[in-house]
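> forwarded from #structure-qc
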């Protein structure tokens, strides 16, 4: 009897965790934290936490006053809350397939601050001509995910949802 009850409790705890993590998703979990959305989308899209491992977010959140040359500092309590959200949903703590691949591609001793420098992400874009990215006034940099991935805010980075602005057809292949 006691055993059956325990089993039920464990089962409930697991399904709760699965719901929180969105187990089984093939892409990246969408941002579901309002505070994060408002604090981290002033200068660029609110990057989904599943695009970087926990150690990268830890490092980034520890130095917001010098954030890629900008000052993105915030109240200590806000910073703490956002750090907890980012760590809990980081690529290496996610069950989403794309996040797991991102995490696996980064050497254990590396903590990249840029998603655009993650090996898995670089490998996915290394055949796109520079004139479509840096040389494209509507994109400017690979960091600008949402310029080309129309469903980036939903955590969807599938190649089927890509439209490169200023490129006829939105494709990048010469054969397109
Ligand atoms: C005051 C403006 C500003 C705010 C606010 C801001 N950022 Fe940034 N962020 C930048 C700039 C500028 C860059 C560099 C963009 C570039 O080089 O193209 C950047 C880059 C990044 C990158 C690297 C993107 C890449 O792959 O190249 C991450 C990750 C990031 N920010 C996360 C955050 C998080 C998390 C927050 C909220 C805690 C935040 N940012 C708030 C200005 C800001
Ligand atoms: C210049 C437009 C552009 C920008 C900016 C861009 N991407 Fe992409 N991305 C593409 C294209 C085009 C592909 C498809 C490449 C291919 O099929 O070889 C792609 C592919 C991908 C894939 C693999 C999709 C799949 O179905 O296998 C991921 C993941 C991805 N991008 C994530 C990102 C993230 C994260 C960012 C921002 C840090 C970003 N991309 C910025 C154009 C872009």
């Amino acid at each position: 009897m006691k055993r059956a009850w325990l089993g039920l409790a464990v089962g409930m705890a697991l399904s709760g965790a699965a719901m929180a993590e969105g187990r089984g998703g093939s892409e990246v979990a969408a941002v579901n934290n309002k505070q994060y959305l408002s604090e981290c989308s002033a200068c660029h899209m609110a990057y989904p936490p599943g695009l970087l491992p926990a150690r990268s977010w830890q490092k980034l959140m520890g130095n917001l006053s010098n954030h890629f040359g900008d000052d993105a500092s915030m109240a200590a309590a806000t910073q703490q809350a956002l750090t907890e959200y980012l760590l809990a949903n980081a690529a290496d703590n996610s069950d989403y397939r794309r996040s797991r691949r991102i995490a696996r591609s980064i050497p254990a001793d590396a903590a990249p601050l840029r998603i655009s420098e993650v090996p898995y992400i670089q490998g996915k874009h290394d055949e796109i001509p520079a004139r479509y990215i840096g040389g494209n006034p509507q994109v400017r940099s690979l960091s600008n995910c949402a310029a080309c991935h129309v469903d980036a805010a939903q955590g969807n980075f599938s190649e089927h949802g890509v439209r490169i602005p200023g490129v006829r057809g939105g494709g990048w292949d010469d054969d397109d």
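QC bot note: The first helix runs from residue 2 to 21. DSSP finds seven helices and no strands in the chain.
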